[in-house]
Design goal:
Helix content: 25-40%
Largest sheet: 7 strands, parallel
Distance between the termini: 34 Å
Strand order of the largest sheet: 3-2-1-4-5-6-11
Strand content: 15-25%
Number of helices: 9
Number of strands: 14
Radius of gyration: 19 Å
Structural class: alpha/beta
Length: 343
């Protein structure tokens, strides 16, 4: 059985950890805050601040991982722009601390990175396009990419805007916030001319799991098959609910905290079609996923239309003490305010 240490306990980390566990891997989440979301229920946890090299080394020594997934925050792009030093301390320095702690081990690493490493001038970017970070978050993530790739057996998975039901999260994603408001006929204001290739959380977990158990290194992009504006997406969610799409109004991106985001936050891949591990894992179209998600209760979200059930959860508990004291620091907590803090 493979031991996997996942740095992070948020939306992406929880889904990745759960999928790995169902496939029979022993999973430990490491984060500053105790996991609170349904996706992390049943997963083991150890407190660790990746900005502290001593804590990182202690957790690595305790878990003795065969593989590491880096999915830690903060992912609040607005927060990172206001505190670039704080963003660098967690993402860039944190990556160096993980690489240092893994030195001499044979652990494979996979970093989940971002489309914000690009300026956003092109309609969409692929792995060979030159990076030019649009903001402090993108700069911190690009530095983390450099650190992990220099460490050896590592792969960077850059993902576009991730969505799915996330009602229990600290910062519900764009789909969740729009769906909750529009389902009750509440208006939604959305930045105009802001383009994404949204990717379903199930696809992020599936690709992460497949690529973690592969020999590939370097960078791979994961974006959804449809490039669309957030305004069009929100209006499609409204139509799917059967409410007036005029409830969605467009506001200038430059007048909102979305101003620091790249206008085009879109990804496509030159590599994915050539990787056998990704066969059968084509990303779900966002409009199809909207319908599937809205048709299912949020407590039991439907998988993407092409998904097949995971194998039963046969993971045994790791011989690791996860009863450590809760790290109650809330330095990276952010209020949920639509149009400001959502990804």
């Amino acid at each position: 059985m493979t031991r996997v240490l996942v740095f992070g306990s948020g939306y992406i980390a929880g889904h990745v950890g759960t999928r790995l566990s169902r496939l029979g891997h022993g999973v430990v989440l490491g984060s500053r805050r105790r996991p609170r979301t349904p996706e992390t229920r049943g997963l083991r946890w150890l407190p660790v601040d990746v900005a502290d090299p001593g804590q990182v080394r202690t957790v690595v020594d305790a878990v003795r991982p065969d593989a590491v997934v880096a999915a830690h925050g903060p992912s609040d792009i607005t927060w990172c722009e206001a505190d670039p030093a704080g963003a660098a301390a967690v993402h860039a320095a944190g990556a160096r601390h993980v690489v240092s702690a893994l030195a001499g081990r044979t652990a494979r690493t996979l970093l989940i990175s971002t489309d914000n490493v690009f300026a956003g001038h092109a309609d969409s970017c692929t792995e060979s396009d030159p990076t030019a970070p649009a903001n402090a978050y993108g700069r911190a993530k690009l530095a983390a990419e450099t650190a992990y790739l220099a460490g050896g057996d590592a792969l960077v998975l850059r993902v576009s805007l991730v969505y799915g039901w996330d009602r229990a999260g600290l910062r519900p994603n764009f789909f969740t916030t729009c769906a909750e408001r529009l389902s009750v006929g509440a208006p939604v204001a959305v930045p105009d001319q802001h383009w994404n290739t949204p990717v379903l959380i199930d696809d992020v977990a599936a690709w992460t799991t497949a690529l973690l158990d592969s020999p590939h290194t370097g960078v791979v992009h994961l974006g959804g098959p449809r490039r669309l504006s957030r305004v069009r997406w929100a209006r499609h969610i409204a139509t799917t609910y059967g409410v007036d799409p005029a409830l969605v109004t467009a506001v200038p991106q430059g007048d909102t905290a979305y101003a620091c985001r790249p206008r085009n936050a879109c990804l496509h891949s030159e590599r994915a079609a050539h990787l056998p591990e990704l066969r059968g894992l084509a990303p779900v179209d966002v409009f199809a996923a909207d319908a599937a998600l809205i048709a299912a209760p949020a407590e039991h979200p439907a998988p993407g239309p092409h998904r097949t059930p995971d194998t039963p959860d046969t993971a045994a508990a790791l011989n690791t003490d996860a009863s450590a004291t809760l790290d109650a620091s809330a330095a990276f907590d952010a209020p949920v305010v639509f149009g400001r803090d959502q990804p």
